[in-house]
Each structure stands twice: as structure tokens, then as C-alpha cells.
Amino acid sequence: MDKAGLYEIYLFKVTFHDKTGGKERPVVTISYNQRSLSFELLGIYSDRPKYSKKVYYQDFMYQIKDYQAAGLRKISWCKRHP
Questions:
Q1: Superkingdom of this entry's organism (predicted)?
Q2: DSSP annotation of 5
Q3: Shortest CA distance to 76 belongs to which of 23, 37, 27, 29?
Q4: Residue 55 phi, psi dihedral angles, 5° rounding
């Protein structure tokens, strides 16, 4: 990161919450006052009927329209983190 940059985006292996494995995800690292904070930008999930049918999920789950161009094997959804 150069002196002018406050953040960088990296591709890191992120561990699943149940710690059974992980996947590569975009992660942003923010530097401020000689400290750094890193967090996952978004989660990507395989297609589930609940994502397209339940109104609850429509506020934060977005279908990836061209999943194959994104390097995914299945129809997938991304989750916007708050």
C-alpha cells in the first residue's frame, strides 16, 4: 500500500463460519492512524429457492446474472454485508 492509499482490496481465502473449509473472497484492508482493519466485502452462495422467493432475502441477496463469466459453476447469489 502506498503512502497516499487508505485502503487496498485483496483476494484472500476466507474460512467458513463452521471452520470446515473456505473460499477465496475479495477483502478490503483499511489503514488509518497506523492501524489496519480487514473485512470480507461480500459472500457468494449457491442458488437456494429462499433467496428468490422470500421477500426477506431481497433486501440483501442479489443474483449474479452472468455467474459463468464470474468464474462460478452454478447460479449464485451474493450477500451484501452491512
A1: Bacteria
A2: -
A3: 23
A4: -60, -35
77 C-beta neighbours (distance < 10 Å), count: 21
More confident residue, 20 or 3: 20
> Are 39 and 21 contacting, i.e. CB atoms less than 8 angstroms apart?
no
d(CA 60, CA 77): 10
Q: Is 50 helix (H, G, I), strand (E, B) or coil?
A: helix
Torsion angle (degrees, nearest 10) of CA 74, 62, 66, 73: -20
Print the SS3 string covering 61-76. Answer: EEECCCCCCCCCCCCE
Strand partners, 61: 79
Sheet containing 35-40: give its strands across. Answer: 7-15, 22-32, 35-40
77 and 62 in contact (C-beta within 8 Å)?
yes
